[in-house]
Amino acid sequence: MKHNLLFAFFLVFSLACVAQTGGLTFSSTNAKKDAPVDLTDPFLDVQVPITITNTGKDTAKIIWRRLSLNGPSKWGTRVCDNNNCYDEIVSSNLDPKLRLNEPFVIAPGKKADLIMYFLPYGTAGTGKISLHLAFAAKPDTVIASLNYEANIRSIATSTRDIQQANVQLFPNPSTDYFQINRLDNIDHLILYNVLGRKMREYTAQEGGRYRLTGLPDGIYLVALVNDQKGVLRTLRVQKKGLRP
Asked: Taking every annotated instance into account, which residue ranges of this chain make up the domain Secretion system C-terminal sorting (predicted)?
């Protein structure tokens, strides 16, 4: 009898929590990541994601507000939702001063990632930061608080892949693809534009050609990622179309 009552209590409590968040559920409300990285990389960032699922019947339009970082003073943070990857200066996707009114939308039964990027700028340490969520219809009513934490530490020289110092990207500038001369211990490549928006992701293959077709001309950053160690190196490539 006691077990049945406890089960009923937890069931009612869980349903009440889902109702309070308007049908939204979260992969975690306290996401943590331990990141051994190469702190000499000036473009390094550490991503900590939380997945939001809309289990309700209505489309969710969500506002987020980033609170102050509790961590090293040199660190920065930025937020990526399914609309955009925002600059460090943006603390909310609803900000009249910046002329921002961009609630991110999750349709019923769909999922979306809300990612915190920690930018260590060469400094190891532990940082914690929270996002407060609200619905666009009631932007001042907090429905959930998501907590992100990153423990960023430098890879010891003995374990750092010294061969990465000889990595070269070619052709550069490129019209439609690029290659990389060596990909020791690299699992995948991520292509960002200069604003930090993720444009494409590639599986690393020796001798592989990584297509830039369909992208606007300009400068892009190519992050070389090891699944265990994080970003080992970031390279630049210029996409330059053929002149008529």
From this structure: 169-231
